[in-house]
Design brief:
315 residues
Amino acid sequence: MINDKIKIFSGTSNRSLAEKICKELGTSLGHVEISRHQSGEIHVSYQEPVRTCDVFIVQSLSHPVNEHLIELLVLIDAAKRASAKSINLIIPYYGYARQERKSAPREPISAKLIADIMTKVGAKRLITVDLHADAIQGFFEIPVDHLTALGLITDYLKSKNIINPIVISPDAGRASTAEKLANYLDCPFAIMIKNRPAHNESEITHIIGEVMGMTPIIIEDLIDTGSTIVNVVKALKERGANDAYVCATHGLFSSNAQEKMNHPNIQEIIITDTIEQKAGFSKLNVISMSHLLATAIQFITQGGSIDTLFKSDNS
């Protein structure tokens, strides 16, 4: 139970997760009215006092990302002008995180831009989950609590008693996470080497590791169009692997991704609820981040080390 000077509000992107967090904390979700004028402008009005309160705003920067971003900024500004003591952002999925560096001349670093905007508007702390790149934490001049879903995913996979598991990193960038998961599951891991001919497209060129007769567990930070995952699954199958499990923290499922992910060589897809799933499909299993996020709020407001959230029987 938290005291009445701590108030949790939600934008429209992931209200169901916000409600679960409040249930974990034994409190009610704060009342805020969010509407849109016919011109498309967003209007926000807190329906209860927030003066001298520690305000937590839950908002994932998922599709439509620009709508949800502006909504979040307006929520921050309204809380600041209502004399909130502190404004803490819970952004389970941080949009624009894949634009964290310049890969070609004359490109923006949009992840840094978003960080600057939120800080300038009045945010005092960020809680987020499995950023696309750890370095994004350094874009902020405020405290960042970077949580991970890896422990929850590990516990779920252990309960499946998968025969001959092997953790697969879809590219070199996920190798560290794949190695951690493999250590937790006490199994080998392999790395896919891929080439990107165009944005949101990839092709597998090599696999480092032996997958013949093994059950792949593909680990990603997010699933967007599903094309990369399907290419990985096909490449594994061609090399004699069993049908795969696919794990990711964030399920964007853009365009016809769900149709692609119903691939016959995918056994199950495990994601978390950092992004609200409007409609699921038979192979999809969603694990909730609510307990982890609620515990983080308790540590922030009552004292305690966020680091203990990463310590489990898995590590």
